[in-house]
Write a structure and sequence with these properties.
Blueprint lengths: L1 H9 L8 E4 L8 E5 L8 H6 L1 H37 L7 H15 L24
Antiparallel strand pairs: 1-2
Helix pairs in contact: 1-3, 3-4
């Protein structure tokens, strides 16, 4: 999978049908089986030069997926609170709880602002308020 992203990083507009990858499951990993692109086939040195970039992008993508799932878990509660307040019904959350939940969600959004992308292997996610489950 990483080889695919390395190629995509080297040639930003290359189409998926311009190369075919294969992995024979013999322990050597994926390799380029066919190269149909007008671009020169990348050398191992070129592929290695973008490997850390692609690994970092994949890590960030995983962090965003988890962050988005955590945000989704809370969004219904925020929507319910706003709707109940607009209808004049006693809201499910107190003003304090609402503010804390908004802060939690903002902290989740801010997780992608970490200064060191390599630190995202173990990102520090904010703690969800226990009453928000």
């Amino acid at each position: 999978m990483s080889l695919y992203y390395q190629i995509k990083e080297l040639y930003l507009d290359i189409k998926d049908n311009e190369f075919i990858l294969q992995d024979d499951s013999n322990g050597t990993g994926a390799y380029i089986k066919e190269w149909k692109s007008a671009y020169l086939k990348p050398t191992q040195v070129e592929l290695d030069s973008v490997k850390s970039i692609t690994e970092t992008k994949l890590k960030w993508a995983e962090v965003r997926r988890k962050r988005d799932a955590l945000l989704k878990e809370c969004s219904w509660l925020i929507e319910r609170h706003i709707t109940q307040k607009a209808l004049g019904v006693i809201p499910a959350l107190s003003d304090s709880e609402y503010t804390k939940l908004l802060q939690y969600m903002q902290d989740l959004r801010d997780i992608t602002k970490q200064a060191n992308p390599d630190a995202i292997v173990y990102p520090v996610y904010p703690v969800k308020p226990t009453w928000a489950d």
